[in-house]
Amino acid sequence: METAHIPGDPVRRLVWSSTGIGGIDFEGRTRLGTRLPPSYRRFLSVANGWRLFSSFIERLLPICEVDWLRAADPDSLSAIQEYYREDEISDQEYLDYENDKHRESLRHRYYPNCLLVGKPWSGEGEMVLLNSRIVFPNGEWEGIFFAD
What we know:
The protein is α+β, with helices and mostly antiparallel strands. It has one domain (3-146). It contains five helices and ten strands; from the N terminus they run E-E-E-E-H-E-E-E-H-H-H-H-E-E-E. Strands 5, 6, 7, 8, 9 and 10 form a six-stranded antiparallel beta sheet that branches. A two-stranded antiparallel sheet has the order 1-2. A two-stranded antiparallel ribbon has the order 3-4. The N and C termini lie far apart (33 Å). Residues 1-21 have low confidence and may be disordered.
C-alpha cells in the first residue's frame, strides 16, 4: 500500500489505485473478508489511521494494521475472557446505549469477531473495536471502547 505522510500532519493520506484505496476494494471489502461499516469506509477514504486520537487511545490504526482481535491481539482477548465477567442481560438491555449501566455492559463473546481499529502505542490496555456481530440497519457496526 502506498501512503504519503506530511511531517507534522497526523493524517496519513492514501493513494488511489486501480483496485481502490489502501487495500479496500470499491465494494468496501478488505483482506479481512468482510464489508466494512460505511462511516469507517468514509473515514478511510480520507485518512489511513489517525495519530493522537485521544489521551486514552493514542492512535487509530492504518488499514494495514487493522485485524480481527483474535488475530491481532490474542493475549488481550484471552485475558478479557478470563478476567472479566460477561454481563447476562437481554439484547434489548445490551443495546440500550442511553442507560449508563448498559453502556458498560460487557459481552466478550463478541470480541473474537471484533476488528481492532485503535490502541495506544504501547499496544497494551485500551482498545477501540468494531463489533461485526452487532450490525445496525444502516450497515454500521457497534463501536466498543475497552479500557482495563
